[in-house]
Amino acid sequence: MPANPTDQPTRVALYARVSTLNKGQAPETQLRPPREYAQRRGFAVVDEYVD
After folding, report:
1. CA 20, CA 18: separation in Å to the nearest integer?
2. What is the spatial distance between Cα 42 and Cα 4, in angstroms, rounded to a whole number?
3. In 3D, which of 41, 6, 7, 34 has the Cα closest to residue 49?
4. Do 34 and 41 contact (CB within 8 A), yes or no?
5. Sequence-ordered list of residues with C-beta below 8 angstroms from that of 13, at least 6 positions apart, any chain
6. Phi, psi of 45 (to 5 degrees)
7. Are 45 and 38 in contact (CB under 8 A)?
8. Taking Cα atoms as reference points, which of 1, 4, 3, 32 lies closest to residue 16?
9. Residue 13, phi then psi, degrees to nearest 5
């Protein structure tokens, strides 16, 4: 349910930063929870950044 006056979903970008690809620190592992959160809240994920 959008909360802004234009009835458009809130646009968000997701960011993941990892210094190693082992021990569960892969970008995909870090991005899963924020993707799920955005979906539950009705946000529109417009981009994902990985550093």
Report:
1. 6
2. 12
3. 34
4. no
5. 45, 46, 47, 48, 49
6. -80, 115
7. yes
8. 32
9. -120, 145
State how far the Cα of 12 lies from the Cα of 46, in Å rounded to an integer: 6
Q: Running DSSP on this structure, what letter comes out for residue 35?
A: H
Residue type, 19: S
Global pTM value: 0.74
pLDDT value of residue 49: 95
Instruction: Kindly tell me if the per-residue pLDDT of 1 is higher than 70.
Output: no
> What type of residue is 11?
R
Can you tell me the mean pLDDT for 13-39? 86
CA dihedral 4, 8, 41, 31 (to 10 degrees): -120
φ, ψ for residue 27, nearest 5 deg: -55, -40
